[in-house]
Every structure is written in C-alpha cells, then in structure tokens.
Amino acid sequence: MKIRIALAGMAIAAIAAIAGSAAADEVSCVSTTFKLLSPDDKVCINSFDDPKVPGVTCHISQARKGGWGQAFGLTEDPSNFSVACRQTGPITVDISKLPEREQAFTERTSIFFKATRIYRIPDIRHNTLIYLAVSSKLIEGSPANAISTVPIMPWGR
C-alpha cells in the first residue's frame, strides 16, 4: 500500500512539472546508425516557444536510441542534447518579474525517472534570458547540460 501511495505521489509530481512546460513540435530526425530489422538510432530536432515569454523560440536536438524498445517507449535515450534559443519576435515581458528559475520545457527520455528539462533563468543585469538544459540522470556526479542565451533586443517598429 505504501508503495502505491509513493508511486501515485511521484506521478502527480511529474504531471504537475510537465503541465507548466511548453509542448515541442518535431522538426526533423536524422538517422545515425542503420539497423536492418529495427528502428535506427537517430538525432531529432524539436522546437518550442517559451510559454511565458512570447518572442522566444528554442530548438533542442536529442539523441534517440533505436531498436524495438523505442517503438514502445522502453529504451533509455542517451543524455546527449544541445539547445539553441533565439528571439523570434518582440519580447514585452518584464524579465525582472519572472521567477529566478523556472522550468520552461521537459521531455521524458526513458520510461522511468529520466527527462531532459530546460530552465529559464533571467539575467536582469544583462537584460538576457538564459536557457539551461539538464538531464535528470546524473552521470558521474553531475548531469549532462547545455546552455543558450537570448539577449533582449528591440524588435521592428
């Protein structure tokens, strides 16, 4: 009974974390390893618009493990990713009113407990938004990570 309650609590926490995050659109995938009888290993690119800062779009590339487990969501993707965020329109949000650190995006990368998360961190002094991508799986003491910055610039007339 205690195990069920703990699992239910973890599921609710995971759903709450995902609910505040942006949804990604798949842009394209490139096969990196040919497999004759099962899906190939590949690198996929997804895009998402920051849900709290209109005018910012991020692209994330992630390694995807092939094999038959991929089709059923049973494989664990490697913690290999890259993120690039850019200003794609006017940014009218006052970044000083944003939280010190907030999750802007998350994507599950294994069936259990592993995800890639992107946090938005305002750098008010430099009028810049920092996007930090991290894996929730620790690799030799620290998670895989990547960073992108978006300096806020005037946009058109």
Keywords:
single chain; 157 residues; mainly beta; 4-stranded antiparallel β-sheet; 2 helices; 14% helix; disordered N terminus
Can you give a write-up of this model?
With 157 residues, this protein is mainly β. Helix content is 14%, strand content 46%. The protein is built from two helices and eight strands; from the N terminus they run αβββαβββββ. It has helices at residues 2-19, 68-71; strands spanning 25-33, 41-49, 56-64, 81-87, 102-108, 115-123, 128-139, 142-151. The protein has a four-stranded antiparallel beta sheet with strand order 1-2-3-4, with no helix packed on it. A hairpin with a 6-residue loop joins β5 (102-108) and β6 (115-123). It is elongated.
Count of DSSP strands: 8
* Spatial arrangement of strands, main beta sheet: 1-2-3-4
Structural class call reads: mainly beta
**Percent of residues in helical segments?**
10-25%
Tell me the layout of helices and strands.
Blueprint: H1 2-19, E1 25-33, E2 41-49, E3 56-64, H2 68-71, E4 81-87, E5 102-108, E6 115-123, E7 128-139, E8 142-151
Antiparallel strand pairs: 1-2, 2-3, 3-4, 5-6, 6-7, 7-8
Q: Concise description?
A:
14% of the residues lie in helices and 46% in strands. The protein is built from two helices and eight strands.
